Input
Amino acid sequence: MDYTEKRLAREELYEGRIIHVFRDRVRLQDGREALREIVDHPGGVTVIPVDTDGSVYCVRQYRYPYGEHVLETPAGKLERGEDPLDCAMRELSEETGLTAEQYVDLGGIYPSPGYCREIIHIYLATKLRPGEQHLDAGELLDVEKHPLDELVEMAMRNELKDAKTVIAVLKAQRWLRERRG
Output
């Protein structure tokens, strides 16, 4: 059955530097009306850089909404209209100092489809070369290296809580295993 909802009206509730928040009035398939709150976000990327020994470069940074230091794959926000691969290359270099000869597109995910339009693009980066980290102003993080299999186990024990990182780790492990035969 088709459950498509038709927007009848839109009210902008908030316009911020990164997000815009709207309240839409919609008509449901059965004729009733409902309200939908939508967060418009330009999207982002995450990169899982895997070295020749199967180790992954991650970043650990403080995430204010949770009050925790969170282990994540390098990531960043897309500028409006920016190509996701260009963003992935920039963020990998900024956060870790690494560059990669090969990028594999592992797909896009909807982290919170119930209310947010954000899409996060996931890239596997291989054939890594070291360089100099050059963080954005106000960006504070540590780079850590973990074996990919250890990150999978951490995900399964709920020690990795960042959704994009968990998905990137699992997708990268599967992709790499399939290519090794």
